[in-house]
Specification:
The protein has eight helices and eight strands, in the order αααααββββαββαββα. By secondary structure, it is α+β, with helices and mostly antiparallel strands. It folds into three domains: 98 residues, Helix Hairpins (Orthogonal Bundle); 49 residues, SH3 type barrels, CATH 2.30.30.60; 84 residues, Alpha-Beta Plaits (2-Layer Sandwich), CATH 3.30.70.100. The strands form two sheets. It has a five-stranded antiparallel β-sheet. Strand 2 and strand 3 form a beta hairpin. Helix 1 packs antiparallel against helix 3 and helix 7 packs across helix 8. It is rod-shaped, with a radius of gyration of 34 Å.
């Protein structure tokens, strides 16, 4: 026979147990959040993190905060009586689904971590990567931002950046400017070399104090109509583009003043 009092008693007992679990879970959540807040304040005061690069410090602090909140969430789930095996299964399935849908984003995050660890370049340096080049403006977890010489902002996904070759043009104190010029076939080779050397030595930013970094000029090939010369000058990395354009202009003017001939241009008649 249906016993109402017994059913009501069981409902009351279950409700009290559930209520106590919910209350305990709420207390753990509040206390846990307070504890996490204090821990994060202490973490931010750690000298090693405070003195680290801003991008690295932000990443470490964010990672610690995420781990602590995951621990808090698992504690609350355990108190509520949810079987941990079921929770782990659900989290694994969800993680797999999220991982597949965010594969590109996870690749960029992994690339950002690798950039922070290996440091192939730093903010302010000039690099060539992924078919573009410019000064590094910012390095974040997802993207690296470059600023080109004509003031365009380029954002490169870190995943692509770490899978391609990177040329760091600013990592060393000195950099070499390489230029090529063509003259007419009949020009005096020594005369052209002297013009090139004089133009480079006359530039105040070109280094001349060391034999290893002395300006260099030599014939570098030719065709039936021209002779090709190479000019090389060492400069400080920060002066590279300034010297590049100054030498282009100075050498061109010097060729004109010396009456240096240019390669002959053949006119080809196309018959229809």
């Amino acid at each position: 026979m249906f016993n109402v009092e017994k059913v009501m008693s069981e409902i009351t007992t279950i409700s009290m147990q559930a209520g106590s679990k919910l209350l305990l879970a709420l207390i753990i959540f509040v206390v846990g959040r307070i504890i996490i807040g204090h821990i994060m304040k202490l973490v931010k005061k750690i000298h090693a993190i405070g003195s680290a690069d801003k991008t690295v410090a932000t990443f470490i602090i964010s990672g610690i905060n995420i781990v602590l909140n995951i621990v808090l969430l698992l504690s609350i789930i355990s108190v509520l009586g949810v079987p941990m095996a079921s929770v782990i299964t659900i989290l694994a399935s969800a993680g797999m689904a999220i991982g597949l849908s965010l594969q590109g984003a996870l690749s960029n995050i992994a690339g950002g971590i690798m950039l922070l660890i290996f440091r192939p370049f730093s903010v302010g340096e000039y690099i060539q990567a992924n078919g573009v080049e410019g000064s590094v403006r910012a390095i974040s977890i997802m993207y690296t931002t470059l600023l080109t010489n004509d003031n365009k902002k380029i954002m490169i996904p870190n995943g692509e950046l770490m899978n391609k070759s990177i040329t760091n043009c600013s990592s060393e104190e000195l950099r070499r400017v390489d230029l090529q010029f063509s003259t007419g076939k009949g020009e005096d080779i020594v005369k052209i070399q002297n013009i090139l050397l004089e133009a480079m030595k006359s530039n105040a930013k070109v280094l001349t104090d060391s034999p290893a970094h002395a300006p260099f000029a030599s014939i570098d090939g030719g065709t039936n109509e021209s002779i090709i010369f190479t000019a090389r000058a060492w400069v400080k990395s920060g002066d590279y583009w300034t010297v590049y354009y100054e030498l282009m202009q100075e050498i061109t003017k010097a060729f004109g003043a010396a009456g240096v001939s240019t390669p002959a241009v053949k006119m080809v008649t196309v018959q229809n």
